[in-house]
Amino acid sequence: MSGGVDSSVATLLLLGQGFQVTGVTMKLFDNQLLPEGQESTCCSLDDVEDAKAVCRRLGIPHFTLNFKEKFGACVVDPFCESYLNGETPNPCINCNRYLKLAGLQQRRRELGAAYVATGHYVQRAFDEQTGTWQLLRAADAAKDQSYVLYHLTQDDLAHMLFPLGGLEKRQVRQLAAENDFVNAEKAESQDICFIPDGDYSRFIQRHMPDAARQRGFAPGPIVDETGAARGQHNGLARYTVGQRKGIGIANPVPLYVTGKDVARNQLLVAPRDGLLAQEVRLRDVNVISGDYCPRAFGATVKLSYRQQPVAAVVQLLDNREALVCLENPQVRPAPGQAVVAYNRDAVIGGGTVSA
């Protein structure tokens, strides 16, 4: 229970279905992780109090679990390292993977509980023909969160519940208001919880000052598609693939960041066509069915969280790698982002974009 309306209503629905429920909130970090004067948009002390208030109203126990060390090791540090290595990571995926899934599932086993339930907008179903659990898109397409849960395994799905998967957001808020929840109209978090001002560069420099001084923030050349130097960048960690504004180069045709050469400390730029790609290579690939073996299959893929799926052929390779061959060229995702494959509404799996 994050303290938000979604997990609160999920708890309400589970009680209505006859489950014995205990609310748990993860304590992920202290305020010293944030710059002075800033507060997190989620996971704050106020959020914990909101979760407790909902549990008191529902008459169920509530516990706060200390996951600060795990959050630092599995989310914050890899986020910073990824940026310093020239990538653009999505820390929410690691948070779901290692804390909301692996971390809470471990606590579930220790406590002897049957399920971990969350307020994610996704659905699960058991496929009798294949004998496997499926992760499905939510009924509310605008709120669907299946993209960030592609790391789920069969064991995870067998022990998870997603009560909101068949509801729309307006229905969730209505249920919260009808039950006088303190967070019925609470705004949703839009930022990375540990960087509420969105200034990734400043955060990385504060959190990993020695590493940031050595790499990621040293000035270097901006190079175009012909290999010509076009100017100076202010540190590769300040840019991301696909960026147009803030490059600082006057050119008749707008230039975009198309890549980063970390070894040479070069920022690569080109007109928009330079962003198009028909193949994307992935690492750390997960197949939800558990049936991972080298093979090719047709699918639709999401190259980013908000993008509509596009047609592709996915070739699973050795070492948990994959090659995604797109039917039509697309603006390629930045290294460090995720690509997720679907068979209609079911998530097949996904992986991290390689450099």
UniProtKB/TrEMBL annotation:
It comes from the Bacteria. Belongs to the MnmA/TRMU family. Its EC number is 2.8.1.13. Residues 281-353 form the tRNA-specific 2-thiouridylase MnmA-like C-terminal domain. Keywords: ATP-binding, Cytoplasm, Disulfide bond, Nucleotide-binding, RNA-binding, Transferase, tRNA processing, tRNA-binding. This is tRNA-specific 2-thiouridylase MnmA. It is found in: Cytoplasm. Residues 143-145 are annotated as: Interaction with tRNA. The lineage of its organism: Bacteria, Bacillati, Actinomycetota, Coriobacteriia, Coriobacteriales. It catalyses: S-sulfanyl-L-cysteinyl-[protein] + uridine(34) in tRNA + AH2 + ATP = 2-thiouridine(34) in tRNA + L-cysteinyl-[protein] + A + AMP + diphosphate + H(+). The record marks 120, 337 as: Interaction with tRNA. HAMAP family: tRNA_thiouridyl_MnmA. Catalyzes the 2-thiolation of uridine at the wobble position (U34) of tRNA, leading to the formation of s(2)U34.
